[in-house]
C-alpha cells in the first residue's frame, strides 16, 4: 500500500474518489485536503425540521475530480499487483451508491487513456510474467496440429529417441572415358 515508507503496512485502506459534478448539479461535497472531505448540505435542505450541518470525514486518501485513472491506479492498485505477483493475497473493491462511478473507476474506457483499474492491473500482470512462448517447443504431430512441449519435455524426448545407425560401406569408384561425344 502506498504511503509513508517507514509506516507499518495497513491491512485495510479506505479511499474516496469525488466524481466530477454533472451539469445542473449542486455540489454537496468539498475536498478539504488529500485525506479529508466535508459534506455540505444542499441549499434549503431540511430533514425532520432539522437543518443538516456540515460534517467532516477522514480517509486514507481522497481523489478529486482532477485525478486521473492513472493516478488512482498508481496510488491504489500498483502495490496490490506487486504483492500478487510476489505470491501474496490482495483484494481491491469499490463500494458506493448507484451511479457514483464505481464501474468507471474499475473498467474505465479506452478513450483518452481512461482505462480503469482492472485493465491496468491485467496489463501489469501479463507484462510481468515471463514469456512462456520462449520456453515452449512446438512440434507438428502430422495431423495439421501441433504438440506443445516444455523445453525439458522436448530434451527428454530427444534423449530417448534412438538415433538411426548408418553403416559405412566402401564404394567402388571407376573412371570411364567416353569417346565420340557430340
Automatic annotation (TrEMBL):
In the UniProt record, which is one GO cellular component term? microtubule associated complex
Where the record annotates domain Kinesin motor, the positions are: 11-182
- Please give the chief subcellular localization of this protein: cytoplasm
Q: Which GO terms describe its molecular function?
A: ATP binding; microtubule binding; microtubule motor activity
Cellular localisation: Cytoplasm, Cytoskeleton
- What Pfam families is this protein classified in? Kinesin
Positions annotated to bind ATP = 96-103
Q: Which GO terms describe its biological process?
A: microtubule-based movement; mitotic spindle organization; spindle elongation
The reply on keyword Nucleotide-binding is yes
Q: Does the keyword Iron apply?
A: no
Which SMART domains does the record cross-reference, listed alphabetically?
KISc
Query: Which UniProt keywords are present, listed alphabetically?
Result: ATP-binding, Coiled coil, Cytoplasm, Cytoskeleton, Motor protein, Nucleotide-binding
Q: Please give the SUPFAM superfamilies that the UniProt record associates with this protein.
A: P-loop containing nucleoside triphosphate hydrolases
Source domain of life: Eukaryota
The record's family statement is: Belongs to the TRAFAC class myosin-kinesin ATPase superfamily. Kinesin family.
Query: Can you name this protein?
Result: Kinesin motor domain-containing protein
**Lineage of origin:** Eukaryota, Metazoa, Ecdysozoa, Nematoda, Chromadorea
Amino acid at each position: 500500500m502506498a504511503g509513508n515508507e517507514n509506516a507499518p503496512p495497513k491491512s485495510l485502506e479506505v479511499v474516496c474518489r469525488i466524481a466530477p459534478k454533472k451539469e445542473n448539479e449542486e455540489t454537496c461535497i468539498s475536498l478539504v485536503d488529500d485525506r479529508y472531505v466535508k459534506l455540505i448540505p444542499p441549499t434549503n435542505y431540511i430533514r425532520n425540521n432539522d437543518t443538516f450541518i456540515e460534517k467532516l470525514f477522514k480517509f486514507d486518501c481522497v481523489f478529486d475530480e482532477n485525478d486521473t485513472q492513472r493516478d488512482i491506479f498508481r496510488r491504489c492498485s500498483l502495490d496490490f499487483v506487486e504483492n500478487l505477483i510476489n505470491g501474496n493475497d490482495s483484494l481491491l473493491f469499490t463500494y458506493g451508491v448507484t451511479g457514483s462511478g464505481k464501474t468507471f473507476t474499475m473498467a474505465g474506457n479506452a478513450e483518452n487513456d481512461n482505462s480503469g483499474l482492472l485493465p491496468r492491473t491485467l496489463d501489469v500482470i501479463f507484462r510481468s510474467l515471463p514469456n512462456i512462448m520462449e520456453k515452449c517447443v512446438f512440434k507438428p504431430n502430422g495431423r495439421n496440429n501441433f504438440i506443445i512441449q516444455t523445453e525439458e519435455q522436448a530434451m527428454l524426448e530427444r534423449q530417448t529417441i534412438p538415433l538411426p545407425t548408418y553403416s559405412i560401406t566402401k564404394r567402388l569408384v571407376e573412371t570411364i572415358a567416353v569417346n565420340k561425344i557430340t
